[in-house]
Amino acid sequence: MRRSLLSSLRAHMGRLVAACLAIVLGVGFGTLALTAHSSASHGIDETVGAQYKGVDAYVYPDRESITPATVAKVKALPQVAEVVPTATAYMEASFPGLVRPVSLPIDALHPTTQISSPGTTSGKLPTATNEIALPNRLAAKHHLTLGQSLRITSYNNKSWTVKIVGLIDDKSAFGQGAAVATPAMVKIFEPDGYIQGVKIAGKPGTDPQALADSVQAVLPNGVQAFTGKGWIEHEVKNYTNGIDVLGGVFGMFAVIALFVACLVIGNTFTIVIAQRTREMALLRCVGASRRQVFSSVLAEATVVGVIASAIGVVFGVALSALALALSREFDWGMPPVSLHLDLLSIFLPLLLGTIATIAAAVVPARRATKVAPLAALRPDVAPAAASKRGVFRLVLGFLLLAGGGALLGLAATEHQVIVGVAGGVISFLGVLAIGTLLVPALIKVLGALPARAGVPSRIAVANAVRNPKRTAATTAALLIGVTLISLTCVGIASVRKTFDVSMDGQYPVDLTVMTYNEKMPASAAEQLKAIKGITQVVPVHKMVVKSKGEEYSVTGIDQATAGTVIHNPALVDKLKSGTALVDYSTLHRLQLKEGSKVTIVSGKNKLTVTLQLGLGLDPFNVTSTDLAKLAPTAPIAGYWLASDPKADGSKVIEEVSQSLPSVKELDVSGGLAKRSSYTKIFDVLLAVGIGLLGVSVLIALVGVGNTLSLSVLERTRENALLRAMGLTRRQLRSMLAIESLLMALVAAGLGIALGLAYGWTGTSALMGGQTIDGKVQYAVPVGLLVAIAAIAAVAGLLASVLPARRAAKVAPAGALATE
Question: Where are the bilayer-spanning segments (predicted)?
Fold first, then answer.
């Protein structure tokens, strides 16, 4: 059998190429996920460990603060060699070219011999109270060099001028690193600053655990001592929680890709074994037992699985190295990560790929052994969908579909995500189970129009539905990929729309620009409108009134232009003459409720208004016409701004914060920052989800091409007969292209429909309990869904190119002569 196995592999390797490619893609993707995760985790281990090099113990204020007295007790311990308390002053720095200062954390730098200190790329570390060292990237951003002076301001408006004496190496820092100054200078900057932790180095030969225990004995309750290694593990866990979650997500997509690969592999082995029925029957006739035939198929699958999985591991490692190299070219606020390989990321994908290949070949192998030798020598008949097994499968499929649909409805109404996932899986299994009935029926419906175009189209439709089981199995892999991509697009679009509506309720204005005790310049509106990304600028007037010893700021905005900057239409409708929009705290201070009437008095002027709830606006808002009745000369105190949804929110905020140079203090607030950050998250999730699931679609299309290739071999005599009857090579290629296109379009259409249903129910289950009013907004990303269908159609056509060329090259006479 060993000789038979080797000769079989040599003879049929061409037919197994597609299965090998599916394994390579699935295993390569799994390797990429595991390698990227292990590299990121290892990189963080090294980065955090470098910050605490030489630290044998660390004191952390868990529930109580660390006092200087506590630090003195730690210093007094006989095992302690060095003690470095960590403290940070949170200041503002006036960088050249900026209108207003920006925040800058400054760490206290203690001289040490055992505990590591920050390294410098140029210059030196500060030693005097008028010196400072800046992170290298921050200095480069603001074009600062050694020897320049920098103005530092505290929260209580005290200022100091310091000299830049060094640039800190921050290549391994997370985000923007902190500047450093002497402990005396940090104390001057922030006299009331607190100690954030204490680094401790023990004397030579001191056991870190014994040192930590001794330190813990002199610490008050609520202050905890770690070993240096223990604290590094604690910090690494804080950073890697997100990476572990991301690793789980990558792993889930890798499992999906491997599952789709299993479908392709199973379908491939089914067809290959069906084509080799006569060959296996001859083996049975010459003495091979069922067990030997079964073992030979599994051995063949094992060889294919091991070789393809090994290639996939190499492919995945190469992709990981390329991705990490590209990540180092962009500033994402993360330290550079180098490739790190471990046994798990290498051998687990190899093992899973091999096992998956063997598992996918088990059913075809068992089917091959059940055919009697003499019966197998007769021509094979295509399996009928109306067999007892087929009827049972259809009944089971409809039951699963109904049960899963009920669970999806329950999840949407009761907002239960786990129930929704279970319903989605069960209902999708039902769709796969009835695929032998559903897919051919849809192909017939979809193929009705092209079937009128000529003989090749009619033959293509007939070929596509000739073997319902094979057609359903072929489209199943593509159906999974398209469904998941559509679900991701619809789900993220619906969650984003729900989030946008919720944000409109909580933060109806993108940005508010206000001054205190200053006048806005006459050209303020023009200056703000000139900022890239700002679309609307509406002035607001303010006045202050007193009632029962309390002051209330009343904001007036033009009713005609309010709708251009207020995103919540309900608030715009409420804002009319005789109405005041107030927040909850103002209602509480006035001891009134919504619908109450109040009279505002300003000198001799009076105004009676009805209170309505206006969340997200200023505490007390009226129309500018009503405000003019109280204070005709009320000044413009600020502006409400609307921004372009496509603009970079962080850049818009930064430019607005640095605008209006004649104003000393400018308060910029609003929902743009939060909206922009979540929008970026949604965009990244959508891009990552589509990219990752695209791998499964690629594997599925390999399966479509593989099925067509094997069906071409199966139908060699039939195609030759068609050629002999007058079918041209071009018509033959068109026939196969239409057959592939029909399968791809049916999988795409059905997958998009399922994606819409799953995306909407998933959004309701996930977001229904998160919104204030419990309402969920459903979205249909038409452009993305059309693109998915178009890509599936084009890919289906491309999958037919090689099989069609192979079929067209066969000479009719030669093909008709084959057995």
Answer: 245-272, 293-326, 346-365, 391-411, 417-443, 476-495, 684-713, 734-758, 778-799
Give CA 656 to chain center in angstroms: 29
Residue type for 337, please?
A: V
State whether the Cα torsion 491-495-496-498 is positive or negative: positive
Q: Is 401 helix (H, G, I), strand (E, B) or coil?
A: helix
Give the pTM. Answer: 0.69
Spatial separation of the C-alpha atoms in residues 809 and 813, rounded to whole Å: 12
- Tokens 């505990």 -> residue: 115
Q: Is 719 helix (H, G, I), strand (E, B) or coil?
A: helix
Q: Is the pLDDT score of 383 beyond 50? A: no
373 in Cβ contact with 284 (< 8 Å): yes
**pLDDT: which is higher, 489 or 310:** 310
Here the contacts of 464-468 (C-beta below 8 Å, separation 24 or greater) are 464/440, 464/739, 464/742, 464/743, 465/440, 466/382, 467/382, 467/383, 468/385, 468/436, 468/437, 468/439, 468/440
What b/e string do you get for 197-208 counting C-beta neighbours within 10 Å, with b at 16 or more? bbbbbbeeebeb
In DSSP notation, 577-622 reads TTEEEE-HHHHHHHT--TT-EEEEEETTEEEEEEEEE-TTS-SEEE
Beta bridge mates, 636: 541
- Report in angstroms the alpha-carbon separations of 797 from 30, 37, 267, 461: 28, 36, 20, 15
pLDDT for 11-22, tens place per residue? 556 556 666 777
CA distances from 184 to 87, 119, 180 (A): 11, 20, 11
pLDDT (tens digit per residue) in 781-818: 998 899 888 888 887 888 778 777 777 776 776 555 55
Six token digits for residue 608: 């009676």
Alpha carbons 483 and 480: distance in angstroms, whole number: 5
| Cα torsion through 566, 568, 571, 575, rounded to 10 | 30
Task: Quote the radius of gyration of the chain (alpha carbons, Å).
Answer: 35
Extract the tokens encoding 228. Answer: 């240096």
End-to-end CA distance of the chain: 25
- Read off φ and ψ for residue 224, nearest 5 degrees: -115, 145
Query: Looking at the predicted structure, is the pLDDT value of residue 332 above 60?
Result: no
pLDDT interval class at 380 (50, 70, 90): very low
Render pLDDT for 576-599 as a digit per residue (tens, 0 to 9).
999 999 988 888 888 888 999 988
- Token digits for 635? 């000044």
Cβ(179)–Cβ(106) below 8 Å:
yes
Q: Is 240 left (phi over 0), alpha (psi -120 to 50) or beta?
A: alpha
